[in-house]
Amino acid sequence: MQPLYIGHPASQYDGGPRALVQLCAKDLDAHGGWPLRPHEYAANFSLNARNFCSMVLQSLGPVLLINPVQRETVEHIRLRLGARVPVIVEDIASLDELREAIRRVCQQHEDGEPLMALDVVVALLMLRKLDLERMWAGNSKGYMWVSDIPKGRGLDEKYRGRVDNVLNILLMQGLLIYKTSNSKRKYALNAERRPEIYEFLRNRKFSDDIQRVLLRHGAVESVRVLDLLDCYNEPPEENGDES
Fold first, then answer.
1. Is residue 200 within 8 Å of 124, Cβ to Cβ?
2. Are 113 and 85 in contact (CB under 8 A)?
3. Environment class of residue 203 by beta-carbon count within 10 Å: exposed (0-12), middle (13-18) or buried (19+)?
4. CA–CA dist 118, 187 (Å, integer)
């Protein structure tokens, strides 16, 4: 079972957050059996967000932050993890409240939350598929027919209805290029935007101007489908253009 990460103040008194977390850790069955990975805040109610997020990314699981916690800490954690796992912040005054918060955030995780705009999901999966298929232009083999894009291998057929719209957005934003063959278009990734494309795949979101356009369609999808992007968690090795 995936772990649950809990950030809490370093209070020493009976009934304080630290003591409540310790009690929960002794009876995992009371909140569904989720193993707990507690982390104490510093004296100023902060966490080293970079180290904390790196640990969560190694073994994804929901995050519960118990107040009081620095707003800056919450913002950094949500920025890095908010597109991957549920992150909630709660006031906790009793063991029952803590167990209820644990059950709630774990249920959100099991339900596939957080949810993400469907076109953002399709765009990221499309970039991934073209990258893994080495569609970086160069020659005729470096382009993919539109009809082949939603044929599995990382981009499910169920997204076919959004492919044309997302293709046009990515083309207009300069992330894709195309060539015409037999009066039909074939698409490839724009090699001049390679660093940005890998950054988008690693962060699982686009720059604000691209994100804004992709958010216009109201449908959403579970962020769990983007677990396929785990291979981009580390910066890619530099590769030459396919030719």
1. yes
2. no
3. middle
4. 21
Q: Which amino acid is at 180?
A: T
C-alpha–C-alpha distance, residues 225 and 84, integer Å? 10
Residue 64 DSSP class: E
pLDDT digits (tens, 9 = 90+) for 175-223: 999 999 888 999 999 999 999 999 999 989 899 899 999 998 889 999 9
* pTM (two decimals): 0.74
| 201 vs 127: CA distance, rounded Å | 8
Rounded-to-integer distance, Cα 133 and Cα 127, Å: 10
Q: Is there a contact between 125 and 222 (Cβ–Cβ < 8 Å)? A: no
The domain spans of the chain are: 4-113, 116-232
- Cα radius of gyration rounded to whole Å, the chain: 21
* Residue 236 near residue 127 (C-beta atoms within 8 A): no
Calculate mean pLDDT across residues 157-172.
96
Pick the CATH number of 116-232 from 3.90.1070, 1.10.10, 1.10.3470, 3.30.70: 1.10.10
Eight-state DSSP code of residue 224 = G
pLDDT band, residue 240 (cuts 50/70/90): very low
Dist CA 123 CA 115 (whole Å): 15
Strand pairing report for 184-189 and 144-145: antiparallel
The residue-averaged pLDDT of 21-47 equals 94
Chain center to CA of 83: 4
